[in-house]
Amino acid sequence: MDEGYILSVPKKGYYVSNIDVYHNINIVQHEGTLLTEHINDLKIDFSPSDIDHKAFPYKTWRNLFKSCFNEFDHSILKRTTAQGNMGLRRELVSFLHSSRGVNCEERQIVIGAGTESSLRTISLILGNKTPIALENPVYRKAYRTFEHMGHEILPIPIDNKGIEIEPLKDHSNVAVYVTPSHQFPLGVSMPIGRRIELLNFANKADGRFIIEDDYDSEFRYIRKPLPSLQSIDQNGKVIYVGTFSTSIAPSIRMSYMILPLMLLKVYNKLFSEFGSEVSILEQKIIEKFIAEGSYERHLNRMRKLYKDKRAHFIKELSIFGDRIKVVGESAGNHLLINLITENSERQMCSAAIENGVKVYPISDYFIGEVISKYENTFLLGFGALSKNEIEEGVKLLYKAWVLK
Amino acid sequence: MDEGYILSVPKKGYYVSNIDVYHNINIVQHEGTLLTEHINDLKIDFSPSDIDHKAFPYKTWRNLFKSCFNEFDHSILKRTTAQGNMGLRRELVSFLHSSRGVNCEERQIVIGAGTESSLRTISLILGNKTPIALENPVYRKAYRTFEHMGHEILPIPIDNKGIEIEPLKDHSNVAVYVTPSHQFPLGVSMPIGRRIELLNFANKADGRFIIEDDYDSEFRYIRKPLPSLQSIDQNGKVIYVGTFSTSIAPSIRMSYMILPLMLLKVYNKLFSEFGSEVSILEQKIIEKFIAEGSYERHLNRMRKLYKDKRAHFIKELSIFGDRIKVVGESAGNHLLINLITENSERQMCSAAIENGVKVYPISDYFIGEVISKYENTFLLGFGALSKNEIEEGVKLLYKAWVLK
User: Fold this and answer.
1) Where would one find the signal peptide in this protein (chains A, B) (predicted)?
2) Three-class SS of residue B332?
């Protein structure tokens, strides 16, 4: 009776319920395609998003867990507001101020479950009637995220100073997504003139905003990074986005964004009823990691490590002679190489794979056709590779591309 | 020169760059409203979403962290596919099969950063041209999530069997969001007849789907829960959603959903380039928590604990005599009480607050006007409260509502 199979009628008894016959419509369910699995005989993967796993501060992390996870702090079991732990936001205010010149208060910071999650939140704040201007080539997940959310996408070319402003001029309602520190994937760093030009562009209409993805500003090897757009902005035009994916580990799904006060108002209206989407314990751990100074020490260590690897990588690549040109700034944990060849990009990728090496063609990052000057350009990440592996990878590539 | 302030012209020298003047447009930045802070002199908070913090398996969790977090397993630092860790998905397949009759394969499971995050993914899969039918009253965050994503919302009344089917009949393209185990917030359990009726409704048109949020099926005290809609469905019409928020802790931002194969195809198309949005380490910890049988032991323990608290709560409430009626099933970690009074709901909430008690009025969960029979109905959560606190809370309520 509890489950509804029979009915009890007072003073009469129990009756069988009148239940519909369940119709099995015998749909042939179309199978979802399986995501491609790792290629088994891959020897070297020049993945641009991997980090050095051996250099992870395991011991520090274990201690942080121990000190953050305890019976007497019930806050580790509770939700927080949608914006995330106040403590972590407080640490970010001072850390981002000293490292990136960012000016903000705790209440402007929103902790997100990774860059894509933060971009989705930005999309909800701006509304999908706002077209999104993207650098082309572009950080692909940003492109796909805004596309999913239903925005009109405006692919904008990049010159040697970063995104071009001219093609944007007609749009009075637009959000421009840029990676000024180290354009992904071309590696261009936006000079001060273009930064001001871009900010002035935004200042000229109420509906113009800039989304500044400062994704790997931590890893710059030759000189101090330029101040962020957010630090120059005086008019609440820049939404600043950062992540711990490359600076700590890609498995820690945590990003942060800084909202101008005007957009914070919209955010609060949309999200005041929600909770944070990021593990509270990991927020606490990272708060402490920053507060203790361990994050800065870790970054300094990793910067040195990646710088050495990068130099070693470029030295190894010299066996290619004039056949290869290294493109972009001295930053991040991947190189961009331009290969002189008469074969197609696809052929070169296949040749590499046949020799057990995976490289990442730049065409994957273009919206539409590849501009001819970037044909046969490849991203080669070295974050996860040891010097020996870099050597092996370069030898295999030389075998694949030159010796054949 | 690196930063773009000066230019070098070969054989001529250095020139100052032509940089725009930065325009400060002196916008008065409107302040975002601050989220309401906790009321300081609150003695008892009958929050419906809190859990018993003292009963959390701290020791087990510490051991799980130790065994999952180690230098030799680099996978704890890497991203996984958007669907989440294969190991956790594997454990969920068998756990959900035995506990909820759910039939699925690993590849149909998607791990999400909480129920709202999963619902957002579902929204992207279905597209926001699909209207969403919601139970009214409704789980508010679900309502807000679908509203944010731009769906047309169809609020559907609930009778004593759950959501009514009749008002849905004209819609051939609709996703019906339901909580059949224990309707939130009314506590109605959907009997088998209505379940079949709802499934048959979905079977009659290609564009009809059911989103089954099985949110606290774990905590049912009188009898075994009815099988999930997903377990009866033979036609790939049900998207099943669950969460660890109440069963483990709200701070663990982790949910899961099971996609019918047809929708899995769409999901893969949309998300194959993305990574999981949930901490990989916590996914590993929960995988092991389930695999070791600790999750089931924890659930059994919590079920007993909440059942006792609930019985105690109802006993204490008897001092109200006929003034109070307890509504809904014997499930979950909150009660629904209907209070006979001539005052308004708002007045009763204020009276409670003045006496240091927070209760949650059902009007907050209605889309539009409250149906008259639910006036002066309140949610009283007891998850986080000890028996003494429940006693104190009831006494304070009695003082606020009866003695005055």
Assistant:
1) none
2) coil
Q: How many CA atoms lie within 13 A of B97 on its CB side?
A: 11
Distance CA B54, CA B56 (A): 6
- Are B224 and B260 in the same domain? yes
Query: Which CATH number do you get for residue A392?
Result: 3.90.1150.10
pLDDT by residue for chain B (404 residues), tens only, comes to: 767 778 888 888 888 888 888 877 655 554 444 444 445 689 999 999 889 999 999 999 999 999 999 888 888 998 889 999 999 999 999 999 999 999 999 999 999 999 999 999 999 999 999 999 999 999 999 999 999 999 999 999 999 999 999 999 999 999 999 999 999 999 889 999 999 999 999 999 999 999 999 988 888 887 777 889 999 999 999 999 999 999 999 999 999 999 999 999 999 999 999 999 999 999 999 999 999 999 999 999 999 999 999 999 999 999 999 999 998 777 888 999 999 999 999 999 999 999 999 999 999 999 999 998 899 999 999 999 999 999 999 999 999 999 87
C-alpha to C-alpha distances, B330 to B46, B101, B180, B222, nearest whole angstrom: 17, 21, 14, 6
Enclosing domain of residue A278: 68-292
Residues from chain A that touch B56, judged by Cβ atoms under 8 A, are 77
SS3 B154: strand
Chain A: nearest CA to B58, how far in angstroms? 7
Identify the domain boundary among A250, A276, A292: A292
Is the Cα torsion angle B249, B253, B254, B260 positive or negative in sign? positive
Closest by alpha carbon to B233, among B286, B176, B279?
B176
B42 touches B358 (CB < 8 A): yes
Q: Cα separations (Å) of A396 from A353, A385, A403, B101, B239?
A: 10, 14, 10, 51, 47
A16 touches chain B (CB under 8 A): no
Mutate to test the interface with A, among B5, B21, B22 (most CBs of A within 10 A): B22
* Helix ranges (DSSP H) in B10-126: 58-68, 86-100, 115-126
Q: Which two tokens stand for residue A148?
A: 């999913």
Q: Structure tokens of A220? A: 């710059």
CA distances from B211 to A400, B31, B118, B134 (A): 51, 38, 11, 10
**Distance from the Cα of residue B167 to its chain's centroid:** 25
* Closest chain B residue by Cα to residue A232: B22
Q: Which residues of B touch A24 (CB under 8 A)?
A: 203, 234-235
Categorise residue B84: left if φ over 0, alpha if ψ from -120 to 50, beta otherwise. Answer: left
Last residue of a domain, one of A247, A273, A292: A292
Residue from B206, B229, B253, B262 to probe the interface with A (highest A Cβ count within 10 Å): B253
Q: Which tokens go with A399?
A: 């075998």
State the nearest Cα–Cα gap between A404 and chain B, in angstroms.
31
Q: What are the chain B neighbours of A232 within 8 Å (beta carbons)? A: 22
Interhelix angle B294-317/B58-68, nearest 10 degrees: 160
